Amino acid sequence: MDAITANAVRTELQHVLDALESMTPESTSKPLKSLADPARMLAQVRNAVIAARRADEPAGPTDLLPRLNQSASVMASLEYPLGGVHWPRIEALRKALAALIRDISPR
Q1: How far is it, in rounded angstroms, from Cα 54 to Cα 101?
Q2: What global pTM score does this model have?
Q3: Which is higher by pLDDT, 33 or 52?
Q4: How far, in Å, are 43, 50, 54, 63 from residue 103 at the CA level?
């Protein structure tokens, strides 16, 4: 995975957020399937941030990776325990991603 810039992180996280914001209980007939793309995108951003750190080219604030890890954990918990999607967790994830996007200053 190639390293990533702060601007690219912001852009990619915005895509994740947009995908999550397009989901509502009323508009998503298969919500678990709808979570696959945002989860994959978030994992790719996280992997790129790790690559940037390893290359000594930080891609954002010092707490970026822990916050991405937290978001990835919440993303993974959206369908567990089984029984459907936990919409309050989606809303919490949306808020966390929006805050993270705001906190990453453009370079």
Answers
A1: 22
A2: 0.86
A3: 52
A4: 19, 18, 22, 10
